[in-house]
Amino acid sequence: MIVKTTPEYLDLLNRAAAREIQVSAQYMLQHTKMDKLSRKVIAENILLDETTYDAFGKLLKDFAIQEMKHLGAIFERIYVLGGNATTKPDKITIGDSIKEFAELGYKAEEEALELYRQVIEAAKNIGDRETWQMFSKIYSDEEEHLLAFEEYLEIEKEPDLGETPESEWRSIFNPDYIALLNKALASEISAIIQYTNQHEKADGLDKMRRKKTALEVISDKNKASVVSKMLKEVFLQEMEHMEKIAERIYEIDREALATVDPLPEIGNSVEDFIKLDRDAENYAIVLYRKVIEEATKLGDIKTKKMFENIIQEEEEHYWMFDDFLP
């Protein structure tokens, strides 16, 4: 045993994980909403090659990626310590302007610093030096995020240009169709959480890292490490899918919903991972065929082409997982 933990201590680490899931999704979806905001015709957009939206949007994407790295590290540490990592995020709130994004980000980072001070103190008291060092580094990153958001708290409120008038072309994007696109977005968020969690579980659990054959010793890898590497590559692609789907929803002047559906399932073995992930890809492929079918009926060619490209990659994931089944 590395260090003797308590249920309360592991719960504290899972509270940190839930917060990291929240902000990584929140910042990425806010980033995708920037294109919608930047299309508003205001003087800044006309006169400048790069707008406030471009600059702040890049900051949000960078933060989202960094928060995802924090999440992976926390997941792995929970498994190393013998716990089970959560798959449920704290409440994700998007907002409608740069000022709101900054206020929401500032609040999230403020709450994170408070929570992480508790984690650092608890790690010190329990003698968990690795967790103490890890959260000290994460704390430093979150403090930088807080200070960055603070710079935008007093930014001038963007002018309200009203709703985009409806037209015959925009009327094809009916509520049922938008709900279908948001269901696709929810499935991508779910897959990202599931694959990230499993990737870190395979790396973090001692029983999964053990080598049992001469070939595993010589190659310095086993089935768990191979699958873990594969899962990292897959969830990075799913992050790209999530970004593209959210951008499309905002591009057609509708709202993306930050939900996790279906709920991620992790499993307790590499064999569980493969079966559950194959099922997740099957769910996505069936759902995305429906999206393509509806997009074709409505004449939404751009969305149709986008999902045709996405579904090709999902099928590659499906067969990749299928190859590992007994």
Structural description of this entry:
The protein has helices at residues 7-38, 43-47, 52-80, 98-126, 129-150, 175-204, 206-209, 214-219, 223-251, 270-298, 301-323. The chain has 326 residues and is mainly alpha-helical. It has two domains: 1-162, Ferritin, core subunit, four-helix bundle (Ferritin, Up-down Bundle), CATH 1.20.1260; 166-326, Up-down Bundle (Ferritin). The model has no long low-confidence stretch (mean pLDDT 90). It is flat, with a radius of gyration of 21 Å. It starts with 6 loop residues before the first helix and ends with a helix. The chain has eleven helices and no strands.
Total DSSP E strands: 0
Approximate strand percentage: under 5%
Overall pLDDT metric: 90
Please tally the helical runs, counting DSSP H or I stretches of 4 or more residues: 11
> Could you say how many structural domains there are in total?
2
Q: Could you name the CATH homologous superfamily of the largest domain?
A: Ferritin, core subunit, four-helix bundle
Q: Low-confidence parts lasting 5 or more residues at pLDDT below 50?
A: none
Helical fraction? over 70%
Kindly report the CATH topology of the largest domain. Answer: Ferritin
First-residue to last-residue Cα separation: 32 Å
Indicate the overall shape.
flat
Coarse structural class: mainly alpha
CATH architecture verdict of the largest domain: Up-down Bundle
Kindly provide the radius of gyration, computed on alpha-carbon positions and rounded to a whole number of angstroms: 21 Å
Question: In CATH, what is the class of the largest domain?
Answer: Mainly Alpha
